[in-house]
Design a protein that fits this description.
By secondary structure, the chain is mainly α. It has 2 domains: 35-104, no CATH class; 110-197, no CATH class. It has 9 helices and 4 strands. The chain crosses the membrane at residues 6-26. Keywords: Membrane, Transmembrane, Transmembrane helix.
Length: 201
């Protein structure tokens, strides 16, 4: 399989500056451009998100396959930044690509990530078309039922549609919008929310 290019394309600001150095040094780093996705690298001064990422990183120290190193020790922020720098300079395997997304880019909930991708989520409150996208939810409910009523694990809509049955799908979607990217089911529900909770057409 082709590698995923994680270079910061176009980010060179001065002669001789390369890759990860720019990633941490630039006050406004450009999004990582990859074959499949666009993510925004953590900025050097974004202490709030760096601290959040570091805490999550050290929470999984006993699962080294999730980290850049096989060490089970608690690491410092400096070391995590160094690992991100070196990884962003590479064309990576899928495994390293996943780690870079998880530990070196700005954390985004499912709601935020879909917004980044210009996917418009349906309203999750309200009772009619104006306030709650009722007809759009009802259309998705019918599509979900007709497609086998099982595309989202452990979730089914009612066997037949009535006045308020569309709310069941809406409420299921609402449960997952704020999952953070460290949730084990983040990628799964990112896809499901995109398909069943958005205004794609």
């Amino acid at each position: 399989m082709a590698s995923n290019n994680l270079y910061l394309l176009g980010a060179l600001g001065t002669a001789g500056a390369v890759g990860g150095g720019i990633y941490l040094a630039s006050p406004n780093p450009k999004p990582v451009t990859t074959i499949r996705d666009k993510y925004t690298p953590l900025q050097a001064g974004d202490s709030t998100n760096w601290d959040k990422v570091l805490a999550k990183y050290n929470e999984v120290k006993n699962t080294p396959t999730k980290r850049f190193t096989t060490s089970t020790e608690t690491i410092s922020l400096e070391n995590l930044k160094r690992d991100c720098e070196s990884s962003l300079d590479k064309e990576t395997s899928d495994d390293l690509y996943s780690k870079v997304k998880l530990w070196c880019t700005t954390p985004r909930s499912i709601r935020e990530r879909l917004g980044d991708l210009n996917i418009t989520l349906l309203k999750t409150d309200g009772e009619d078309d104006d306030t709650g996208d009722k007809s759009k939810w009802a259309k998705l409910e019918g599509k979900y039922r007709d497609g086998g009523n099982s595309d989202i694990k452990n979730f089914k809509v009612d066997a037949s549609s009535t006045t308020d049955t569309w709310k069941k799908l809406r409420d299921e979607c609402k449960k997952h919008l704020d999952k953070d990217r460290w949730d084990d089911e983040y990628e799964y529900y990112l896809g499901k929310v995109s398909e069943w909770c958005s205004d794609k057409g």
